[in-house]
Write a structure and sequence with these properties.
With 85 residues, the chain is mostly helical. The protein has one domain: Winged helix-like DNA-binding domain superfamily/Winged helix DNA-binding domain (Arc Repressor Mutant, subunit A, Orthogonal Bundle). The protein has four helices and three strands; from the N terminus they run αβααββα. The protein has a three-stranded antiparallel β-sheet. β2 and β3 form a beta hairpin. The longest helix is centred in the N-terminal third of the chain and has 21 residues.
Length: 85
């Protein structure tokens, strides 16, 4: 019998996808926003991409303008501080 993923495993997976989305947005901040479809193609899963975007938006880490997504100033600044450490 195959083990079913537990809630902690699913949370870790969701966190991982959110980190990937945010990393993509932060790495490309000089080239402009990503479309939701571009992020979905990069991740290989449209539902995971959409869920991650909404979670990050709710946390104040990304802005969404119709189909475009980009990192907030707060996320960019934190990234700069973390890189400097």
């Amino acid at each position: 019998m195959q083990d079913q993923p537990n809630a902690a495993d699913l949370t870790r997976q969701d966190d991982h996808v959110e980190r990937l989305v945010l990393a993509l947005l932060l790495e490309s901040r000089t080239t402009g926003p990503w479309s939701i479809q571009e992020l979905a193609r990069e991740l290989g899963d449209e539902t995971q991409a959409a869920d991650a975007i909404e979670s990050l938006r709710g946390a104040g880490l990304v802005h969404r303008c119709q189909e475009l997504v980009f990192a907030t100033r707060s996320a960019v600044r934190f990234h700069e501080l973390a890189d400097a450490a």
